[in-house]
C-alpha cells in the first residue's frame, strides 16, 4: 500500500514537472514577446493588423484569435494553409506575400464585422527566431445619419447601424419614448419620440463614445407663393452642405448631392435647387399645395423644416394694394384742398364763403353837406344859378372849388 502510494505520488510529480517543462519550453521557444497594439476599424471597412519579424528561411506564419486553435490565417512552405481557418474569415484574410521576405507578416482583414472584435495573435517562426505579437481590434459603426420627422403630434428621431450602443438626448429635456434594438450583425438601431407642445425647433442628439450627430426639426408654418415663380428656403448650416432633399407630402421631388436630380413629375415646376437649399419653383398652380419638407445635411448635423405651402393664393389678393393706392389718392384729394382753403380763409368763419373784400376807399370830401368820393363829385351837376360856374379840380385826391 505504501509503495503504491509512493508510486502514485511520483507519477503526479512527473506529470506536473512535464507540464511545467512544456510551458517553459514554449516560452523559451518564443524569443520575443512584443506589447499589444490596439487598432480601430470602421464597420465594413478593410483593416490591416500589423506584424513584423526578422526575416529568415523556412518561414511559418500563424494568425489566430483568442486561442491557437481558432485559426484566422496560416502560411507555411511558401503558401497559404487555410484548411483549418474559421468559417467567418474565409475569403476575407490576406497576407502580403511579396512582403514576407522583408519581415512583414501583416494581415489584411476585409469588410470588418462587429463580430471580428477581439485579440489577434501573430506567431512567426523561421530559421532565425520565433516570435509572437498581439493586436487588439476594436470595431466602430459611427452615427452617420439621423432622420427626424413629424408624425402627427409626435416628432421622431431615428438612426440605424450603430456600434457601440448609442444614447439619445433632446434639446428641450422632454420625456422621450426611446427604443433600441440589436440586429443580427450586432449593430444597434435607435428610435426616440417626443410630443409636440409648441412651435419652434426640436433637436435630438444621437451619440456614442466615438461619434455623434444632431438633427433639428422646425414645426410646420404656413407660406403662400405667388406669381409664376417663387423660392423656398432651407434652414442654414454653418459648415459646407453635403446634401439637400425636398419632399412634398412624403415623396421626394428633388435632391442635390453634387448633381441635381429632379423627379420626373416635377421637372416642369423645379427650376433650380442650390447647395444651400434654396428651391426655385415655376409654373405654380393651386394643385401644388401641400406639405413641403426640406432636409439639409452636412458632416455634423441635419436640419429639417416643414412648410404648409399654398401656391397662387396671393395673386387673388391683387386688389388690396390697389385699394390702398386709391384710399391714399382720395385722402390726398380731400386733405390738400381743405388745407389750402384753410390757409386762404384765415380769420373767416367758413371756408368757401368769403366775406366781402375790404376795399380801400379813396379820400373823400363833403359836398352840399354830403360825403362824396371824387367820382361822385365829378358826377354832380352844378345847380342852375345866375352865378358863374365853379370849376372843380382834384389835387392829391381832394376836391377843390375854384
Structural class: mainly beta
| Mean of all residue-level pLDDT scores | 79
- Total strand segments: 29
Low-confidence stretches: 1-31, 313-318, 352-360, 394-402
Description:
By secondary structure, this protein is mainly beta. The chain has helices at 2-29, 319-344, 374-379; strands at residues 32-33, 37-42, 47-49, 60-65, 71-76, 79-80, 93-95, 107-109, 118-125, 130-140, 147-151, 154-162, 167-170, 177-182, 188-195, 201-207, 212-225, 229-232, 243-248, 251-257, 259-262, 270-273, 279-282, 290-297, 301-311, 365-367, 370-372, 392-395, 398-401.
What is this structure, in a nutshell?
Helix content is 15%, strand content 41%. The protein has three helices and 29 strands.
Defining traits:
single chain; 402 residues; mainly beta; eight-stranded mixed sheet; seven-stranded mixed sheet; elongated; disordered C terminus
Ordered list of secondary-structure elements with their pairings:
Layout: H1 2-29, E1 32-33, E2 37-42, E3 47-49, E4 60-65, E5 71-76, E6 79-80, E7 93-95, E8 107-109, E9 118-125, E10 130-140, E11 147-151, E12 154-162, E13 167-170, E14 177-182, E15 188-195, E16 201-207, E17 212-225, E18 229-232, E19 243-248, E20 251-257, E21 259-262, E22 270-273, E23 279-282, E24 290-297, E25 301-311, H2 319-344, E26 365-367, E27 370-372, H3 374-379, E28 392-395, E29 398-401
Amino acid at each position: 500500500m505504501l509503495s503504491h502510494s509512493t508510486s502514485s505520488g511520483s507519477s503526479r510529480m512527473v506529470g506536473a514537472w512535464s507540464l511545467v517543462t512544456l510551458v517553459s519550453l514554449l516560452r523559451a521557444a518564443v524569443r520575443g514577446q512584443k506589447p499589444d497594439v490596439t487598432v480601430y476599424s470602421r464597420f465594413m471597412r478593410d483593416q490591416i493588423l500589423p506584424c513584423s519579424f526578422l526575416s529568415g528561411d523556412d518561414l511559418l506564419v500563424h494568425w489566430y484569435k483568442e486561442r491557437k486553435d481558432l485559426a484566422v490565417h496560416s502560411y507555411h512552405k511558401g503558401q497559404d494553409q487555410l484548411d483549418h481557418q474559421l468559417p467567418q474569415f474565409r475569403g476575407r484574410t490576406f497576407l502580403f506575400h511579396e512582403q514576407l521576405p522583408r519581415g512583414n507578416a501583416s494581415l489584411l482583414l476585409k469588410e470588418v464585422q462587429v463580430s471580428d472584435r477581439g485579440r489577434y495573435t501573430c506567431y512567426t517562426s523561421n530559421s532565425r527566431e520565433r516570435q509572437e505579437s498581439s493586436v487588439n481590434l476594436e470595431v466602430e459603426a459611427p452615427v452617420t445619419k439621423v432622420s427626424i420627422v413629424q408624425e402627427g403630434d409626435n416628432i421622431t428621431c431615428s438612426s440605424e447601424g450603430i456600434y457601440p450602443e448609442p444614447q439619445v438626448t433632446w434639446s428641450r429635456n422632454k420625456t422621450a419614448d426611446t427604443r433600441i434594438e440589436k440586429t443580427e450583425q450586432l449593430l444597434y438601431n435607435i428610435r426616440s419620440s417626443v410630443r409636440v407642445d409648441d412651435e419652434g425647433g426640436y433637436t435630438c442628439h444621437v451619440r456614442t463614445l466615438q461619434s455623434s450627430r444632431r438633427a433639428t426639426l422646425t414645426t410646420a408654418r404656413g407660406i403662400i407663393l405667388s406669381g409664376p415663380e417663387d423660392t423656398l428656403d432651407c434652414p442654414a448650416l454653418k459648415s459646407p452642405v453635403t446634401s439637400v432633399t425636398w419632399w412634398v407630402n412624403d415623396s421626394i421631388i428633388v435632391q442635390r448631392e453634387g448633381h441635381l436630380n429632379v423627379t420626373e413629375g416635377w421637372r416642369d415646376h423645379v427650376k433650380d435647387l442650390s447647395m444651400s437649399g434654396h428651391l426655385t419653383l415655376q409654373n405654380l398652380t393651386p394643385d401644388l399645395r401641400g406639405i413641403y419638407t426640406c432636409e439639409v445635411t452636412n458632416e455634423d448635423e441635419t436640419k429639417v423644416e416643414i412648410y404648409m405651402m399654398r401656391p397662387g393664393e396671393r395673386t387673388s389678393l391683387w386688389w388690396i394694394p390697389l385699394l390702398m393706392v386709391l384710399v391714399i389718392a382720395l385722402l390726398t384729394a380731400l386733405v390738400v384742398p381743405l388745407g389750402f382753403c384753410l390757409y386762404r380763409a384765415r380769420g373767416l368763419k367758413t371756408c368757401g364763403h368769403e366775406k366781402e373784400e375790404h376795399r380801400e376807399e379813396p379820400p373823400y370830401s363833403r359836398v352840399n353837406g354830403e360825403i362824396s368820393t371824387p367820382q361822385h363829385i365829378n358826377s354832380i351837376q352844378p345847380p342852375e344859378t345866375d352865378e358863374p360856374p365853379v370849376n372843380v379840380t382834384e389835387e392829391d385826391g381832394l376836391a377843390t372849388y375854384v
